[in-house]
Design goal:
- The protein is an all-alpha fold and 100 residues long.
- The chain is 82% helix and 0% strand.
- It contains three helices and no strands.
- The C terminus is likely disordered.
Length: 100
């Protein structure tokens, strides 16, 4: 009976790990596309419309803005993730975590 429970628990752990990897992948893809969407929405506002119609070759401003904003967002996410993992590992013996 205990061997069967152990196998079942092992399978659940593997499935949970696969699910966590999938969720991180989705989060990372979102972190790459969301800043570009935000910047394009801001540049599409009527405030910028007249300026960019007169200066069409200035599309590089969009790409630089997207690159910088994406770098900042991904860096902040990475810092947050590392701090969260460190706090989980420091408190491992103190309490039981269902989901980190």
């Amino acid at each position: 009976m205990s061997q069967m429970t152990g196998r079942t628990t092992g399978k659940i752990a593997q499935e949970t790990q696969k699910d966590a990897i999938s969720m991180r992948t989705i989060a990372l893809v979102t972190l790459f596309f969301l800043p570009a969407t935000f910047v394009s929405a801001v540049f599409e506002m009527p405030f910028f419309e007249e300026y960019f119609n007169d200066h069409a070759p200035l599309v590089w401003i969009y790409f630089v803005s997207v690159f910088l904003l994406t770098a900042v967002v991904v860096s902040l996410w990475n810092i947050w993730l590392r701090r969260k993992m460190r706090s989980i590992h420091e408190g491992e013996g103190k309490y039981f975590l269902i989901y980190p």
